[in-house]
Amino acid sequence: MNEFEAVFGVKESRIKKICVLTPYLTKGLIRNFDATPSHKGRLCSIASAPHFSLICTGIGSRAIGDAVLYLEKTPCQYILFLGSCGAFRKTAALDIGSLVIPRESFSFESFSQVLLKDFSSYTMSYPDEELLRLSQTKKYFRDFRTVTGATFGSLKLEAENIHFLTGIGVDIIDLECSALYHAAHFIQKKAAAFLYVTDIIGQKPFYSPLAKSESQLISLAERTVIQGIRKLCSDLNNREEK
């Protein structure tokens, strides 16, 4: 058993050309993706779907970054990420259950950087231009809004930094996207993230109990993201086969 097989539970050759990555892998999510659970490695779990490999990476920038790097020598060409995020203000366009695609992401991934408020230097990361263009033209992504995001190294310190983050133009905050985009660019794979809003920083924080209507909005948003990703996977496969 080599390193990849130990980490993912399958051989590199078993990975499909489209990989859908997510921090978590619930029974409901597997069912909605029409996937079949198959293998569990030391770091990642994999379920198999008709057009893609569904990979659970775990939560956070380290987890997503390592998972992407391990895909370098596999058949994977496209990496689509399903995740959640927080918005900084409740607006007509951004609320719990809203659907977003980060067109750029500030990298504030280090907990120590955030704790010490060392924001003097940072990098920006971006999705693949082809995937971003497709997401803006396909009807099944019509309800998604492109936003500026920030990947942040602390949940607890999000609210304390609202003014700084909104001041530099950040719309949403997450735990994975900048690492995803950087790692995918590093290994020359095409990547894009598709997120849904689960909380409003400073107003409805991540630890707040959700009203029934809010839980329903989040469940609907997750299903909508899954449907969009499934259709995109089908379109990418059909295009490659022509």
Detailed description of the structure:
This protein is of the alpha/beta class. It has a single domain, classed as Rossmann fold. Helix content is 34%, strand content 26%. The protein contains 8 helices and 10 strands. The chain has helices spanning 3-8, 27-32, 61-70, 111-115, 129-137, 162-167, 177-186, 212-241, and strands at residues 18-22, 36-40, 45-48, 53-56, 78-87, 99-108, 124-125, 144-152, 172-174, 190-200. Strands 5-9-8-6-10 form a 5-stranded mixed β-barrel. Strand 8, helix 6 (162-167) and strand 9 form a beta-alpha-beta unit. Helix 3 (61-70) runs parallel beside helix 7. The longest helix has 30 residues, at 212-241. It is globular. The protein starts with a helix and ends with a helix.
